[in-house]
Structures are given as C-alpha cells and as structure tokens.
Amino acid sequence: MALPLTGRTAIVTGGTRGIGRAISLHLASLGANLVLNYAANSTQADLLAAEINSSSSGTRAVTIRADVSDPEAVKSLFDLAEEAFGAAAHIVVHNAGVLDPKYPTIASTALEDFDAIFSTNARGTFLVLREAANRLARGGGGRIVALSSSLVGALSPGYGAYTASKAAAETMVRILAKELKGTGITDNCVAPGPIATEMFFSGKSEETVKKIAEMNPMGRLGETKDVAPVVGFLCRDEGEWVNGQVIRVNGGYV
Question: Which of 93, 152, 158, 229 could form a disulfide with 103 if both were Cys (CB 3.0 to 4.6 A apart)?
Fold first, then answer.
C-alpha cells in the first residue's frame, strides 16, 4: 500500500536541525521526497539527506543552502525541487527562523537585532509564501505550513521583536489561505510552545528552563516529536479541511 505522501515533493526550510529536522524525517516516513534547506551547516544537512536516502533505492532527499530573506535564494529552492524530482513541489513547510538569545525588552532591543529578526522571520515568510503561492502544484494536495510560535498568545517579556515577527507570519498565512481559493492549496500555521531544541536553550539558565517546564500543565518541555506529526497531518489528504488556521502545539502552555 502506498504511503500517504508518495510521489509528492516537500520543501522544508530550516529543515536539517531542531523542529525542522523532525518534520523532514516525519514527512519522509510518509513517503514524500524532500528538499532540505539549511542556512550554514552543510555537514548536518548532508547527514540527514544520507539518512533519508539510505532507506530507498533512489534519491529521496536533496539539500540546498539558501537564505530565506533573499528572493533569488528562495526561488532556487523551488527550482531545485522541480529539477531534482521532475515536477512542481506539492508541499512547503516554512520552518526557518531566528531568535535573539539576549531576550531584550523592547526598550533595550537594538535596531540591528530587530531588523535581523524581521528579515528572516517576517520577510522570509513573505518570500516563501509568495513563491509557494505561485509555484506549488494545483488541483489538490498542495500544502503550505508555516511554523509560528505560541509566544504570539503568551506575550512573554523579552521576546518582543520575535513575537511580533511571528504574529506577522500568522497574519500573512491566514490571508493567503483565502487568496488561494480554487487552487486546492491549503495554508496553515503550527505554533509550538517551548520545545527542547538548541534554539530554545540558547541564552537560558538551567533555572529558567526548569521554571518554563514547570509552567506547563504537562510538567515538561515539548519535544520535536510532539510537533512533527501535527505538520504531517496537515500535509496529508486528510488534513484538507483544516485551512487558514493557527494550531498551537504546546501542552496547554497557552
């Protein structure tokens, strides 16, 4: 029996580490071909592609380094998907994002740090969504999933620029879902709470991490495996009726 995403190509930005890595592996387990985007660590990307390809007789994963804030680089992601797998991509999971590990108040946020966050998180989302809207396969099975953050609901101090950039992403996703009427493409956000990744731990003391974990009704931090299956469901045919939504995956954190 064919796997649910057999014959479909998925582009995953920021797809080789943290939540993105878990999503890439999960989509591969559902049968998808993968275009794995990364920002800097080619070794990490190549190892993940090799892991996915080892389970198949042919190539099911390719890697590409690209800055999602660069329109030409974003275009190249979609070009590679078509060149590598012979057809337009069906799925885009936009996971690439940055966070300021200094956790400044808005009053103390440096302009260059604000610009860097918005360049990747807001501009990058716009560029990926725009390209996906123009390039994804039509007629059914087209899926866009952008990763946001439950901080948009929590409004925690120290995350002003980051949270604002993710709120911008959520707004664009919800509007685009309506603009894609008639294409068969759905567009949703998945908004994780605190997840045990390198990005989450960066700049936090053990005491802070413990306090955040204890705040959750489930009594722990989330794990990447808590997020990936939610994204996977949205990418399957069964997820078609979920469209234009922001789904918080946070154990009750918000």
Answer: 158
